[in-house]
Design brief:
The protein has 362 residues and is an alpha+beta fold. It folds into two domains: 2-44 and 218-357, no CATH class; 50-210, no CATH class. Helix content is 57%, strand content 15%. It is built from eleven helices and twelve strands. The protein has helices spanning 2-10, 12-47, 64-71, 106-112, 133-139, 190-200, 211-264, 269-307, 318-321, 326-344, 347-357, and strands at residues 54-56, 75-84, 87-88, 92-93, 96-100, 116-120, 128-132, 146-149, 157-166, 172-174, 182-186, 208-209. The strands form two sheets. Strands 1, 2, 5, 6, 7, 8, 9, 10, 11 and 12 form a ten-stranded mixed sheet that branches. A two-stranded antiparallel ribbon has the order 3-4. Helix 2 (12-47) runs antiparallel to helix 7 (211-264), helix 7 (211-264) runs parallel beside helix 10 and helix 7 crosses helix 11 (347-357). The protein is elongated and about 95 Å long.
């Protein structure tokens, strides 16, 4: 341990530089991975709104007999389904659903969605809307402002913002219009109810969206984005590993000279192996840990300042962090393997060679 401490004191600047470069490589890989994963995470949460109920989208009012048949099984709520624009990265748009409920059931729906009203009230007129805080930030609006929706693929019109919601959900509330033909179905066992409703509406070509359908879409989307994110992390890790190995190769020459000198002086090879291994581990582990901590701080800053105001979710998961261990692992393995031949060679001949390279031959 004395030799390790002596080496670190003599080469503190070089050790710090390599650890710093490693931490930047790790943090760069993680931030890029988080940004890519955020697109999938946002889309998954947008779809996840449907997990709390079943939606029926007939293009005409349902027959009374059909409605009665459904009501015998579950609770059916007529809604005014509108879609407002939700900006993503300033260019793309994701559909975000705004549901219009009768005023008597709004509080029950909000409770099921784990949503709370933090400012204003729920809508009482068709031109009013109560929206989540994330959407208001994305559009630069506050309670009392007019939301002008002009998107060709979204509900057009002017809506007065009368309330602000908080909670991990992207559903807002509007007052239902009499022209609505959409329905939301709620019950205790949504998976069973979805199958029942599909059976009841069989042959009518009425779209039904429930948790079983949404769950499969969610799982497929999430696997796709996680796979892309992990794949990019691995590719970046390999690239950064090669760059770090080239930076460390200069230091490895000095390290080989020290190993040859210690071997010539009779220092046990077992201890030299251990010293070299511990030296690499200290540089790699410290750099990786600093990089991970720095990444979490950067992601949090980006989330608050860039992503959340645009209605996007940004986070780091363990599936994104662990692939970056490839960077210190590969650099350590390549560097250690390049030093192994030093242990096996003739130390005096290697010292002469190193001296010749430096032009130090007398």
């Amino acid at each position: 341990m004395y030799n390790i401490g002596l080496y670190l004191r003599r080469n503190l600047g070089k050790v710090f530089f390599l650890s710093l470069v490693l931490s930047l490589a790790v943090s760069g890989t993680l931030v890029i991975s988080a940004v890519i994963g955020s697109i999938g995470d946002t889309r998954v949460k947008l779809l996840g709104v449907n997990e709390y109920w079943i939606e029926i989208f007939p293009n005409h009012p349902l027959d009374t007999s059909v409605l009665t048949n459904i009501i015998d099984h579950v609770e059916v709520l007529p809604v005014d389904l509108r879609v407002l624009g939700y900006p993503m990265l300033g260019t793309a748009n994701a559909g975000f659903k705004v549901y219009g409920f009768e005023s008597g059931v709004v509080l029950d729906i909000a409770e099921k969605l784990n949503v709370s009203l933090i400012e204003g009230r729920f809508p009482m007129e068709p031109s009013e809307v109560t929206l989540p805080d994330s959407l208001l930030k994305a559009r630069g609006l506050k309670v009392g402002d007019i939301l002008q929706e002009r998107g060709r693929f979204f509900s057009q019109g002017d809506y007065k913002v009368v309330g602000r919601l908080t909670g991990d959900v992207l559903a807002g509330f509007v007052f239902p219009s009499t022209a609505s033909h959409d329905y939301v179905v709620m019950g205790s066992d949504l998976f069973f109810l979805e199958e029942q409703i599909r059976h009841i509406l069989a042959g009518q070509q009425v779209p039904v969206y429930g948790p079983s359908l949404i769950r499969s879409v969610l799982a497929e989307n999430y696997r796709e984005y996680l796979g892309i994110s992990a794949g990019i992390s691995i590719v970046l890790a390999i690239i950064f590993s090669l760059v770090l190995w080239m930076l460390n190769s200069v230091e490895s020459k000095n390290r080989r000279s020290e190993i040859a000198l210690l071997t010539a002086l009779g220092y046990p090879k077992g201890r030299l192996y251990l010293t070299t291994f511990v030296d690499l581990c200290i540089k790699m582990v410290s750099g990786w840990l600093v990089g991970v901590l720095f990444s979490y701080a950067l992601v949090r800053i980006f989330e608050v300042t860039l992503f959340e105001p645009k209605g996007m979710f940004l986070s780091l998961t363990s599936s994104q962090v662990w692939p970056t261990l490839l960077i210190p692992f590969l650099v350590s393995v390549i560097s250690f393997c390049s030093l192994i031949k030093t242990f096996k060679g003739d130390p005096l001949r290697m010292l002469d060679s190193f001296a010749a390279e430096r032009g130090d031959v007398s």
